Amino acid sequence: MTVVDINAHRTCGTGRRPARESMLERMTFIVDAFDDPNEVLMLEDVTVRAGLPRSTTHRIVTELVDLGWLARTGRGYALGTRALGALGPQASHARIRIAASDIVQELYLRTGMVVHLGVLDGSQEYFLDKVGGPFARALRSRVGSRLAAYRGTGGRSMLALLTPERVDQLVGDELARDDARGKWTLPRLHTELNRIRGAQGVAYELTENVSGIGAGGIGSLAAAIRTSDGTVASLCVAGEAHKVRPERVAPLVREASVRLAMAL
Q1: What dihedral angle (degrees, nearest 10) is formed by the CA atoms of 223, 105, 87, 29?
Q2: Are residues 146 and 194 in the same domain?
Q3: What is the pLDDT of residue 91?
Q4: Considering 65, 87, 109, which residue would you say is the last residue of a domain?
Q5: In the chain, fewer beta carbons within 10 Å around the N or the C end?
Q6: Closest CA to 78 of 32, 26, 37
Q7: What's the CATH code of the domain at 113?
């Protein structure tokens, strides 16, 4: 992301840097080192691009992380929530989708099931990616579509990462309206979220009598993570119920979610 023209600030008429730079200028050099909102850089990369001494870069980067302008990731540093604020959540979503691309493909190959990548957006699950074979067409989920978080396995895995108070704030009113026609109530949801927390964050559901699906119904299993910028994301697999055996599938989904967290 280019905030300002770096060269215009770094050089004077002679083509050399000014003798002294203000702290604000040096902070700008460091933030401008990130050419893309989804880029992750090592400290050495930031040092070279910013043109500052390594000790100076390290000190300022640490302060920028503390203030939210940068974020630490498993592989280095990325733009933080403050720097990304002007871009909205799309930048964070793009970063997650890029980081998850190979992980989602591998999870599909290892399980043979439909894999969903979702993020928690307010009270809803927002689907960033969906990979699967012919069975994927039988599922109504679509990339870019939304689903009330409490209704989906992936959504509930993400809600389980929140405090009960935060869950009430997000979905309490919606559940109260849905109570008369839906199977979920707020007490029942909290019971399920506690079960998920006690199952190492794994959410599982068996849905029977689904139109267009065999008599066995659909099984789905999910695990969620929280990224360095606070975004909550989930990986969820779905398939014919008899194939989604938690004892086999849960370790694969957990492993994939850990890899995604490390990649971010």
Answers
A1: 110
A2: yes
A3: 66
A4: 87
A5: N
A6: 37
A7: 3.30.450.40
Q: Is 200 left (phi over 0), alpha (psi -120 to 50) or beta?
A: left
Give the tens place of pLDDT for each residue, 113-138: 999 999 999 899 999 999 987 777 77
80 and 105 in a single domain? The answer is: no
Looking at the domain assignment, is residue 1 inside a domain? no
Average pLDDT over residues 46-72: 91
Q: Which of 53, 72, 87 is the last residue of a domain?
A: 87
Six-digit token string for 191: 């019971």
Residues 61 and 94 in one domain: no
Query: d(Cα 8, Cα 19) in Å, to the nearest integer?
Result: 15
In this prediction the pTM is 0.66
SS3 string, the chain, reads CCCCCHHHHHCCCCCCCCCCCCHHHHHHHHHHCCCCCCCCECHHHHHHHHCCCHHHHHHHHHHHHHHCCEEEECCEEEECHHHHHHHCHHHHHHHHHHHHHHHHHHHHHHHCCEEEEEEEECCEEEEEEEECCHHHHHCCCCCCCEEEHHHCHHHHHHHCCCCHHHHHHHHHHHHHHHCCCCCCCHHHHHHHHHHHHHCCCEEEEEECCCCCCCCCCEEEEEEEEECCCCCEEEEEEEEEHHHCCHHHHHHHHHHHHHHHHHHC
For residues 81 and 96, state if they share a domain. Answer: no
Between the alpha carbon of residue 178 and those of residues 118, 160, 173, 183, 191, the distances in Å are: 22, 20, 9, 8, 17
